[in-house]
Amino acid sequence: MTALQQWVHTTLADKGWLPSGPLQLAPLPSDAGFRRYFRLNTDAHLLAVVAPPTTEKNETFVFIAKLLREQGIHAPEVFATDYEQGFLLVEDLGGQLLLDSLEPDTAHCLYGEVITDLLRIQQIPTAALELPAYDQPLLRLEMSLFEDWFATRLLGHTLTPAEQNLLHTTFAHLEALAAAQPQVLVHRDFHSRNLIVRDGLAPGVVDFQDGVVGPITYDLVSLLRDCYIRWPTDQVERWALAYGNMAVEVGLMRPVTRETFLRWFDWMGLQRHIKVLGIFARLHLRDGKDGYLQNLPLVLRYTLEVAEAYPELLPFADWLRETLLPLAKQQHWYSDYRSAGNAKARAQ
Known about the structure:
The protein is an alpha+beta fold and 348 residues long.
């Protein structure tokens, strides 16, 4: 019996939750992190989680799970922990991901439910949060993954001093606008693969252990400009602006113009997508998780569409299109970024 099996068996025995037959731990598909999940054959819906303490923020996960549940968000209940070994026993919210449920006749309602939960999450007072700030150094650290893993290691391009200066200028624009936004609790990976549809119940929210206090539009753009599914630009903007109006109504932000809010939203999404280009490249090169490569064209599309729309960001867009895009086209994973996501795009 493995250490995890022994720990789960002992924990369940102490709680009187052992199944009538042999205990079974069925592995689930892994995610982008180092966590591993096992579904248990108990009457209660339970998952055993292996989350190595050297890489995973288990205490933060438990802390945020409690905060979210107190706010009426259906985060997994945590029943037992062994921080030293990196073992957790948590509620199993099911396997029906939001991504798999999004269709033209369901999207508006599903996004409405999720955005309502997002507003609840953001109303948790930040004074009560002992979490890192999503500040300039952290934003810059994330965007540096683009240079290191995407441009240099994946595409084989060494940046010149002039190109490094261009990136520095672009990143500084994005960091400044992020700092200008209202600061709230940020899930930091709020998208369709971390949200679980539960028939007749509130959506389940998972994978929040990297939570920070940061810009109000970060989770919104993570949801609406999802790296795994694309929606028409005008529909995304309508959803985003509707959220902005609700955020004003509940006191999360002061009224701002349509242009100001969409600039917050667009530029925050660009920061995220620049980071994600680096993360997906790293998942392939370092961790052997090649499946993320197929999502790179859509992330490139988001990146170029936003950067091309703002004069301050146009030099970055031109450089990306003229210098890195030809290198990307030589990669086996590349498909035309201009149509990326169209197969999954839903007309409203």
